[in-house]
Amino acid sequence: MPVTIDELVNYVAGRALDTVVDSRDRHDPVVKLASPAELQQLFAQAAPLDLKADDVPDNAALIAAVDLVIDRSVHTRHPRFFNQNFAGADPVAIVGDWLAASLNTTLATYEMAPVFTLMENAVLSRLAELVGYRSATNSANQLESPAGVMCPGGSTANMMALQLARHRKRPDSIRTGTGGERLTIFTSASGHYSTSKAAAVLGLGTEAVVKVPDGPDGSMDAVALRNAVEASKAAGQVPFAIVATAGTTVTGAFDDLDALADVAEEFDLWLHVDACFGGAALFSPRIHHLLDGVDRTDSFVWNPHKMMGLTQQCTLFVVSEPERLDACFSSKADYLFQPDKLNAELDSGDRTFLCARRVDALKIWLTWKARGDSGFTERTNHALDLADYTRAAIANSDGRFVVVAPGPYVNVVFRWLPPVLRNTTSSIDDLSPQLRQALHDVAPGIKARMQTEGTAMVGYQPIHGLNAFRLLFMNPEVTTDDVDETLRLIDAYGEHEWADR
Ligand SMILES: Cc1ncc(COP(=O)(O)O)c(C=O)c1O
After folding, report:
1. Ligand 1: which residue has its CA nearest to atom 7?
2. Which of 142, 164, 216, 318 is the most buried (most CB within 10 A)?
3. Closest ligand 1 atom to the C-alpha of 84?
4. What is the pLDDT of residue 24?
5. pLDDT band at 490 (very low <50, low <70, confident <90, very high)
6. Which CATH architecture has domain 373-499?
């Protein structure tokens, strides 16, 4: 009996729901590793991945393919997935995303998204209140002056912030481009790479981005920033924006926003806060002070799809003077934003770089309502507790592990050390070139063993030229037992890897 489209849809929906309600058993693999060739082969036995002109639809084969999709994907809700700064998607967010997809509309106009327009304005207003851009709002305020706009990812929001900044400094640039001027942007050496990409896209060039040195804790050195701005001006350039980072991607460092705001005010620079990762600090009294000065900034972006488990993507971009969005991004396309239609003033499409926009507003509204600020606080504090627990476990590991960057946030960056390097007084900087290379290579070796067995997933990256692991905490399902087991696994793989060298 052939499988009908309705049966296929029901099957996929059922399997998708299973993945939401059944959290992965910690003994199931995080991933069943397969090479591209192996994957091609597995799918060839179900439904080949390639699309051919003479393909005959076969829904039974697609059911087998859907099983394979689930079986062979990375399970980011698994309690031993620590690889990325998103993990443990909230079931409420997942189903909110599904519902938005099934209603399939665009957030560009009120006409097409009446409910979602109001929801978007409500979540942006609440964020603007938390940031300090506006006092407690009422519905009229939200409607008359939305606090910002949702974006498809933090990189887009960072780019839009820089466009706003340039527009404030050189209002004509929208029409005329930047001319011969060298406009400069300042961000920390550890800031996200999206700033450089944005500079390239905006026609400023990546060399317009001045990477200000970090202080010892990995945050931007405000004195170095001031010197860099002075130097840029002395060279005849036009500084126009600072991109501060609240929660750097690798070590979780927070720039001192008050100190940066002083520099921004002195030189009339736009101060944008990339809080894509660290915005969760708004909800935790334990680390809220890391955002001191945030109310003095010009724009702020937060990705609830990182710490809060919203499904990707979910990006909230708020601006202290939100009317600047219209001035900067309005195109007044008369086929879409007819001024004489009903509720024309509620269209959001002229506040953003995009045309059609995915409805990411429903899932964040639903999740925020279902969890409340208190749920977000709990989730953040749980992650902070686990990070503290891990740092303490590392301190008590008899030298097996050493913390490399003792950040204040949910990132634990550390190295595994072979027996020969444990509890010695000599510094890593004094290692022979051979030993240093071996230590550098051991991290990818450990990770490859871990991926092959599917027992956990942990990231690594060079820190001062030497690879170090990074555990990221945000999934509420993770327990201290998961931390212990993951450290035990790294140590066991490390012993094998080192012995094989
Ligand atoms: C600090 C920071 N900024 C920006 C981004 C980019 O966000 P997105 O991936 O949503 O574009 C990231 C992503 O990890 C990040 O960590």
Report:
1. 154
2. 318
3. 14
4. 66
5. very high
6. Alpha-Beta Complex (3.90)
